[in-house]
């Protein structure tokens, strides 16, 4: 089944999204990591959409969504996504977020507990204060455009350092997405490590699935989340920081198995 693209209006601007699957099904809403876009989930969505309704949003400032004003809180990205969900007249839904998207998924799960059926996270942001400081020091902005085009090399090297080099097609796509989002991704890195993810995480009451590759930069957050919520499902994937693209079979299988188990428990 083909994954299609469309826009939905919010008060601040248009949110771009990818979608597919049976319209009568409760949707899985995908939220991407910093520097990526909804394109990251397309291979996984293709594996799921014969049975599941799938929707992946571009966060404001990323992909083909509107350019937001300056922000200093990840919650300022959460609210337009809720507007987009409401704009599509979606009542109940599952959430699947990666890295920054995992944080937003947890926040939405707390804000809309009656509507969120489950929360799935690839690389949860459950970090100690010491770990957060390390991430602040090592992930703290983005190269802005310059006349000598040094920002092109800096962006390319950033992605290569984080594992994108194993697949040239994906590398090219992520490079383009990172260039487009240079403003927003810098602002995300300026505030994501102060995002009170642990507060949202503690308040979540719905079924949860944690996923991560062992070489994901947030694998430690996955391990800590797994330890903190032993009743939740946890699955290790492949693909470094790009699991939905590089391991679509593992990602889609983990999601399908989790949702089948969750649906049976609800029944």
Spatial strand order of the main sheet: 1-2-4-3-5-6-7-8
Largest beta sheet, briefly? 8 strands, mixed
Shape: globular
| Structure classification | alpha/beta
How much helicity do the residues have? 40-55%
How many alpha or pi helices?
11
How far apart are the termini?
Answer: 28 Å
What's the average pLDDT?
A: 95
Strand proportion, as a percent range, falls in 15-25%
Task: Give the structure's gist in a few sentences.
By secondary structure, this protein is α/β, with parallel strands linked by helices. It is built from eleven helices and eight strands. The two termini are 28 Å apart.
Structural features, described:
- Helix 1 (42-48) packs across helix 11.
- Strand 1 and strand 2 form a beta hairpin.
- This protein is globular.
- The model has no long low-confidence stretch (mean pLDDT 95).
- It is built from 11 helices and 8 strands.
- 44% of the residues lie in helices and 16% in strands.
- Strands 1-2-4-3-5-6-7-8 form an 8-stranded mixed β-sheet, with helices on both faces.
- The protein is of the alpha/beta class and 267 residues long.
């Amino acid at each position: 089944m083909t994954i299609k693209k469309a826009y939905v209006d919010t008060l601040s601007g248009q949110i771009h999204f990818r979608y597919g699957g049976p319209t009568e099904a409760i949707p899985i809403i995908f939220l991407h990591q910093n520097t990526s876009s909804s394109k990251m989930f397309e291979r996984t969505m293709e594996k799921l959409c014969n049975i599941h309704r799938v929707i992946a949003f571009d966060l404001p400032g990323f992909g083909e969504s509107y350019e937001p004003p300056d922000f200093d809180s990840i919650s300022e990205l959460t609210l337009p996504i809720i507007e987009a969900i409401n704009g599509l007249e979606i009542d109940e839904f599952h959430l699947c977020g990666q890295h920054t998207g995992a944080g937003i998924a947890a926040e939405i799960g707390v804000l809309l507990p009656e509507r969120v059926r489950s929360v799935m996270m690839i690389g949860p942001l459950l970090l100690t204060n010491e770990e957060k400081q390390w991430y602040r020091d090592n992930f703290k902005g983005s190269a802005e455009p310059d006349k000598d085009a040094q920002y092109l090399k800096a962006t390319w090297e950033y992605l290569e350092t984080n594992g994108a080099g194993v697949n040239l097609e994906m590398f090219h796509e992520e490079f383009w997405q990172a260039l487009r989002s240079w403003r927003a991704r810098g602002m995300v890195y300026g505030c994501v490590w102060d995002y009170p993810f642990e507060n949202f995480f503690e308040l979540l009451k719905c079924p949860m699935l944690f996923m991560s590759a062992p070489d994901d930069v947030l694998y430690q957050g996955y391990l800590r989340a797994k330890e903190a919520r032993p009743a939740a499902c946890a699955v290790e994937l492949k693909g470094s920081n790009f699991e939905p693209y590089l391991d679509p079979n593992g990602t889609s299988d983990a999601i399908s198995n989790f949702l089948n188990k969750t649906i049976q428990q609800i029944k």
